[in-house]
User: Which sequence fits this backbone?
């Protein structure tokens, strides 16, 4: 599934090490759906979870930019919050591979 999203804010979450698991971090872009036609858009904000190699490219420069994402799956937190897992294929009108 391909989605066009407007990046509104960023979220970083950190979890401490516990139960033998190492500490970890998660970087997400909180977005609005800009897909067409407008009447079929998601009405809530949705997070796109950045992969390690995407953090350097898109963290801090992604605000107020339009990204196109190929969504491979939707993950849900324990509280029910959805996050898109996939790949950014277009960043503000530029193919992501050339960024």
Assistant:
């Amino acid at each position: 599934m391909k989605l066009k999203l407007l990046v509104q804010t960023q979220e970083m979450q950190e979890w401490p090490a516990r139960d033998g698991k190492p500490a970890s971090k998660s970087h997400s872009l909180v977005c609005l759906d800009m897909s067409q036609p407008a009447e079929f858009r998601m009405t809530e904000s949705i997070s796109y979870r950045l992969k390690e190699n995407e953090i350097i490219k898109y963290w801090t420069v992604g605000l107020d930019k339009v990204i196109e994402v190929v969504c491979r799956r939707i993950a849900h937190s324990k509280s029910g919050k959805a996050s898109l897992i996939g790949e950014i294929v277009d960043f503000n009108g530029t193919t992501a591979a050339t960024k």
Notes: Residues 2-14+25-98 form a domain with the OB fold (Dihydrolipoamide Acetyltransferase, E2P) fold (CATH 2.40.50). The chain has one domain: 2-14+25-98.
